[in-house]
Structure formats: C-alpha cells, structure tokens
C-alpha cells in the first residue's frame, strides 16, 4: 500500500480541498510515470479524478492522447463539461465506455470486425459439434 506521506504531490492531487488553481499547476509538473517513484509523474491521473478540478483543467487532460489514465479520469469526473465527455464517447479504449456511462448512454457497440469474428467463431463451433 502506498504511503501518501512518501508522495506528497500525489496526496495533494487527490485531496478534494486542493484549490483548482493548484490542481492545474500539478498537471504541468515534469515527471516520468514510467519511474514508479516519480511523484510528479503521477499527478495528472489523480487530478483528473479530483472533484475540485476545474472544467478547464479537465478539458485539457481529456485531450491528451498520450495519457490514457488522465483521459479516463476526466471522462468519469462530473466537472468535465458534457461536450467534452461526448467527444470521448468515440474513443477506442476504456474512455469511451466511461464517457458513455457518465452520460447515461449504452456502452459502445462492438465494431464490425469484432462482430464478424464473434459470428465466425460461433459458426465454427456449431460445425465442430
């Protein structure tokens, strides 16, 4: 279990009492998430789930194509504007399902290729039995 005293920036990013301005600052800190001990590198994903994050910060995080976790958090955060969440419903990853759930929409239907593969597998199994 992570001790938040060892990672004060992460703790600040998760704390709902942190001001929206400070949360925005935390998203801009240099850090490498690949280095598990990089406190600053993990702030963006925690800010994205913070109920005190501003709509502007969440919009910025939602548009970062290189940060899946921040986009996912923004999709789930009630402070993210609905127009931004709607844009995430077409993503190919978990953000789409999170965004659709947040808007009360059904989950994204499987794409045509996935449906074809599923149908082909079912036909093949019927032939084998």
Provide a concise account of the structure shown.
The chain is mainly α.
Walk me through what this model shows.
- The protein has 129 residues and is mainly alpha-helical.
- It has one domain.
- It contains 8 helices and no strands.
- Helix 1 runs parallel beside helix 3, helix 4 packs across helix 5 and helix 5 runs parallel beside helix 7.
- The longest helix has 17 residues.
- The model has no long low-confidence stretch (mean pLDDT 84).
User: Total number of β-strand segments?
Assistant: 0
Mean pLDDT rating? 84
Proportion of residues in helical segments? 55-70%
- Stretches where pLDDT is under 50 for at least 5 consecutive residues are none
Structural domains: how many: 1
Q: For the CA atoms, what is the radius of gyration?
A: 19 Å
Name the structural class: mainly alpha
Indicate the overall shape.
Answer: elongated
Strand fraction equals under 5%
Give, in order, the helices and strands. HHHHHHHH
Secondary structure blueprint with pairings:
Blueprint lengths: L7 H7 L5 H8 L15 H7 L5 H8 L5 H9 L5 H7 L5 H9 L9 H17 L1
Helix pairs in contact: 1-3, 3-5, 4-5, 5-7, 6-7
